[in-house]
Design a protein that fits this description.
The protein is an alpha/beta fold and 289 residues long. 47% of the residues lie in helices and 12% in strands. It has a single domain, classed as 3-Layer(aba) Sandwich (Rossmann fold). The protein has 11 helices and 7 strands. Helix 1 (20-31) links the parallel strand 1 and strand 2 (35-40). Helix 1 (20-31) packs across helix 9 (235-247) and helix 4 (102-121) runs parallel beside helix 6 (151-171). The protein is globular. The relative contact order is 0.15.
Length: 289
Amino acid sequence: MKRYPEVADKVAVVTGASTGIGRATARLLKSRGWRVFPTARSRTDLDLLRGEGFQPVEMDLADSDSVEYAAKEVLELAQGVVGAVVNNAGYGQPGALEDLSRSALRKQFETNVIGTLDFTNRFIPVLRAQKCGRIVLVSSVVGRIAVPFLGAYSASKFALEAIGDGLRMELGPAGISVSLVEPGPIQTCFRKRVVSEAGRGLEMRNSVFAAQYAKELSEPERTYSRPTDVFRQPPEAVAAKIAHALESRWPRARYPVTAVAWFGDFAARFFPARMRDRILSSKVIGKEI
């Protein structure tokens, strides 16, 4: 485990801070003495963040102009000093891969991968000049092991994992730490966003998986439980790992969060591919398909 210099100025930008993991992270860091600049897309969420004493910045990762403007605004508000960048913003496009439109797949990568790297790159010169800094990429257990009906989201998180590894090797000599945080089931509004995206770019009506979509994507909240639900943790559990990645002199390369995430990491490394397929297909797809 490599030792990194402590961040000189506790100034952090946290993307996707409207709810869930991002909001919990912004609150935790603020309570630990960090000056936090959270980002969000909607005016309502920005107003709520202002009400909590933050200086939020509007940003849509899928819009390159928005990313450029947001980075400039953060640096202006922070007077050119930023010690940490926490990349949490993103969403999950549901659906079997064969049912996804080209535009839906493009938007998934534009937001979760291209926009995230674009935003991060705009702060790297500042971190290099300071000879210290921390970068956190919030990935997912499905960035280590793919699951049916979240293939596009899994692919974007697999890409984010590779970006994290690449950045860590490239920026390590400059004293900049890069960590990947890999949550499993977390108590957030993620499912609601997944359901809301289902009707955009996903052909459900004529799909061979129509029955599965009707069960999984008809309601924002599930009325039934899954075995993994007992391992679900609050967003504060992820925020605690992010805080460790920002403050420890020995930040880890990866932080699995929840037992499901640890199992996914183990299965990705040690289970044969066909065994993983059987386990995940039986648990996720079910007998009705």
